[in-house]
């Protein structure tokens, strides 16, 4: 049946269809809900299954998440009797955690994109759910019990000594839609930015993503100051500010790489940049005695030592988010450390090396002796 | 939606977050250099003014003073 056939006033919600199903009715149910041909959903799932296997996971999730047509609750809710919104939310958060692990693992570019897309989709679903719930049909929501169930201590302020003769009507807790709306918007932004980064369409830095999410949390909380029920965003925002501070200290355009590196470029083969995410890196430039070059070296966390040829001219621009810089015997400690030095060549025919060195956390050294 | 009391805690944190992210985005998208010694007091003053203004407005409406 299509949405047009629904009797007026019926709750329009996403269910797994009983008729026209192939496996568990997920595609048919989604087709009915969105009024699109089910073949489209099936093709997308098939493609996702062939490339990376995400389709199977997605289908299985829908299977347990979405209630069957005519059933009051989903499989998940039946398993976790109690059927509270909290359960669904914890599940969504666990799912998000899995996506984040996929995103961070970076083993497979396709899995990476699927993970990013999943984060964006979950965010969009949360927003749709909240908007829909306010109109009476959330995607995830089943019909609510007639009597509101209240958890936790009563919200009412401490009663005056003389109890009122009339019992106060207990206000039902309004769902914290604003906080979830804000959270959903953050997920959409995070997913889209990751997709942009992995597709190469744009080059957003992790700190950019954190900054935008902090901005969204801020706007959500300001709105919550007037509309209420957004305080849950405060700890989320504090964590995001912490993430912003950490990622802001990191050099730009880092790669997800870790370990020990030993770079020894020769004059005929100089890369313009040497990058390590975390670990120990030695950049030995002693073979470039007579060359003039500009070299960029970045490390996210760990130790980077640059060996420069003796007597070469040097233009050094070194920065460290937090940690120690030791440039030709001159040591600096702290956060936001910067050191700019120009050393003229002291040998005939010596070249000049321009070094842009940037570390996030750890040690950065420039030595003018061989390793 | 039912009328809510003004929540200064949410408002304060919200404004702090807006200022922090605004500062970052401003320094990274433009050539403006911000000094934290200026940004922090500016943010605190703005947050205080908004909260004071909103509280006074609510009190003028004849509401009870809100509870934190």
Give a verbal description of the structure.
- The complex is a heterodimer of chains A (371) and B (68).
- Chain A has nine helices and six strands; from the N terminus they run H-H-H-H-H-H-H-H-H-E-E-E-E-E-E.
- The longest helix of chain A has 27 residues.
- The N terminus of chain A is likely disordered.
- Chain B is built from two helices and no strands.
- The model of chain B has no long low-confidence stretch (mean pLDDT 74).
- Classes of the chains: A alpha/beta (371), B mainly alpha (68).
- At the A-B interface, helix 8 and helix 9 of A face helix 1 of B.
Task: Name some characteristics of this structure.
heterodimer; A: 371 residues; alpha/beta; 6-stranded mixed beta sheet; 9 helices; disordered N terminus; B: 68 residues; mainly alpha; 2 helices; elongated
Based on helices, strands and strand pairing, what is the structural class of chain B? mainly alpha
Oligomer state equals heterodimer
Give the N-to-C terminal Cα separation of chain A. 75 Å
Strand order of the largest sheet of chain A: 1-2-3-6-4-5
How many extended strands of chain B? 0
Which overall shape of chain A is indicated by the principal axes computed on the Cα atoms? elongated
- Measured by DSSP, the beta-strand proportion of chain A falls in 15-25%
Order of helices and strands of chain B: HH
Low-confidence stretches of chain B: none
- Low-confidence segments of chain A, ≥5 residues, pLDDT <50? 1-10, 142-152, 154-165
Q: Main β-sheet of chain B: number of strands, strand sense, barrel status?
A: none
Helix content of chain B: 55-70%
How much β-strand is present in the residues of chain B? under 5%
